[in-house]
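Q: A reviewer asked whether we had any structural model of the full assembly, not just the individual parts. We don't, so I'm hoping you can provide one. Inputs are below.
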Amino acid sequence: MTITGAQFDAHWMPFTGNRQFKKDPRIIVEAEGRYYKDSNGRKIFDGLSGLWTCGLGHKVTKINEAIKEQIDTLDFSPSFQFGHPKSFQLAELITSFSPKGLDRVFFTGSGSDAVETALKIARAYWVNKGLPSKSAFIGRIKGYHGVNFGGISVGGIETNRKMFGELLSANHLRETITPQNIFSKGQPMEGACLAEELEDIICSLGAENVAAVILEPMSGSAGVIPPPKGYLERIRSICDAHEVLLIFDEVICGLGRLGWASGSEAFGVTPDIMTIAKQLTNGVVPMGAAIVKSSIHDVFMDSNLPHYMLEFPHGYTYSAHPVACAAGLASLSLLKEEDVFNRVREIAPYFEARIHELRQYSVVKDIRNFGLAGGITLEHYPAEPARRPFEIAMRMWDKGQYVRYGGDTIQIAPAFAVLEDELDRLFESLEESLKKF
Ligand SMILES: Cc1ncc(COP(=O)(O)O)c(C=O)c1O
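A: Here is a predicted structure for the entire assembly that you could use as a starting point for your response.
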């Protein structure tokens, strides 16, 4: 099927260089397993599991069948004041993947919405506790928390913020990549001391004014930045000491990418609230969720409002959409049935060995990895940090390999069942692409 010029003009594409794309379109028409087919009939290896979404691969029979059956039974049901069975089933199933104590689930339509929900729960929690001044947020440089105003305020990617005027006020911790910990395999040994800055920020704001700290346990979109050993533990203890909530944004880390049910489990630190999306439905239907400690949820339920009043005036038309719930139930069941987290941990050392071989190329300035996620930082062209990753990703596409480029990095996150020889082909293509510089 050809796309006409008027059709190209009509679609303003997200996070895309629209002018470049429309001159040289990359159109994907089909997907199966770990591969796409493009409009020229070429088979393309999916080196990012969609957008960190499709860890179980594409066209998964069990998920597709669940969706079809759901559409034929209940295609939509109002999410406010009425329920349908699958949302309750899915909420309970999600809690079996969550850290102990996080057992209340609020559904959203996306990862960005899950972040806004978490931030609003944090502020409203302190209001309900009679401490309304506790409203400030602390994020981290290079953090990505979606694209809504709350998310870009706490997020630390400058280009996502600077066009949009006044934001929520938020302080940011330093990023954790340092000259001492570049080319670390897995969690860097150096850098835990960077967490001490949190103590200073909280003290300068006054703990009585701080609602929450929000971090990705491992930054994903900024190019895969695993936390230094001891760093998250220290963040947790500083939050506890000052009665500040800790939110983990697990939209990428959660549900298998790291080889564990969550980043929290992978790194052994439990937040008060966490967000998930992407892998929740294997990317097939949009859905996100904020998962909350029952002690936080109970503060809302224990308020003295009349019984018919809303405890939390927040939600989305598409919260707990029945089709998304059906997809979520099927995807999470498959994560268990196929013992996916073990499988990721088994293949992760091979992935780690292969990605770190790229260190020999002079344009490669850092390599980071954890589970089945890898990030490669490339030397900048003068004043053009984003150009080289774009050029590499385009060369990769020409070679039948899809990888993500973001900022000054290339990012790789193949499906959980990826084979060693598929990784060999991916990294050989990357080597050929890097050699040309
Ligand atoms: C950590 C994190 N939070 C939030 C989001 C936003 O999710 P969505 O694009 O579904 O709104 C993303 C998306 O990549 C993410 O990686």
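A: Points you may want to mention in the reply: The pocket of pyridoxal-5'-phosphate is lined by residues 110-112, 115, 144-146, 216, 220-221, 249, 251-252, 277 (CB under 6 Å). The chain has a mean pLDDT of 97.
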